[in-house]
Specification:
The chain is mainly beta. It has one helix at 44-52, and strands spanning 6-15, 18-28, 59-64. The chain is globular, with a radius of gyration of 12 Å.
C-alpha cells in the first residue's frame, strides 16, 4: 500500500489549558474520502484549522504529500 497523502499523528492542541484535540491520528490515501463527525465542541473545526495551517498544534505532526 502507498504512503498516505495526509498523515496526522499524535495531534494535540489546547487553548488556555482547554484541550480541544487530544491524541488525534488520521491517515488518508490519495483519492480517498473521509468524513469527520461529532457533536458540537468535539474539535472538528479545530482539526481542520490545524490541517490547513490556520491553527498551530501544541504537539504532534501533520504531513501532506511528504511535506511536514
Amino acid at each position: 500500500m502507498a504512503e498516505p497523502i495526509l498523515q496526522v499523528t499524535g495531534l494535540y492542541v489546547d487553548f488556555n489549558k482547554f484541550q480541544a484535540v487530544s491524541n488525534m491520528n488520521l491517515a488518508v490515501q490519495e483519492n480517498e474520502l473521509r468524513v469527520i463527525i461529532g457533536p458540537n465542541g468535539a474539535g472538528k473545526t479545530t482539526l481542520m484549522d490545524m490541517i490547513t495551517g490556520k491553527t498551530k498544534p501544541t504537539q504532534g505532526k501533520i504531513v501532506f504529500d511528504g511535506c511536514d
